Amino acid sequence: MKYLDIAIETALAQGAGYADIRIQRDTSQVIYLLNRSIKYAVNDVEHGYGIRVFKGGAWGFAHCNRFDDRTVADTARRACEIAALSAKVKKGAGLTLAPERSYIATYKTPVAIDPFDISMREKVDLMLEVNRTMLNYDGIRQAVFYLIIHKCEKLFASTLGTRLDLTTQLVDPMITATAVWEGDSQSRTFDEGGRATGWEWIQALDLTDKAKQIAEEALIKVKADTLGEEQRRTLILDPNHLGLTMHESVGHPTELDRVLGWEADFAGISFATPEKLGNYQYGSPIVNFMGDNTLAEGLATNAFDDDGVPAQKWFIIKDGILKEYGSTRDTAPQIGLAHSRGCNRATSYYNMPINRIPNLYLQPGKEPLTPAEMIAATDDGVYIQGRGSFSIDQHRINFQFGGDFFWEIKDGKLVRPLKKVLYKSCNPEFWNACDAICDERFFRPFGVINCGKGQPGQTGRMTHGAAPARFRNIRVGGSQ
Question: Cys-Cys crosslink for 447: which of 153, 194, 251, 265, Cβ 3.0 to 4.6 Å?
Answer without folding.
Answer: 194
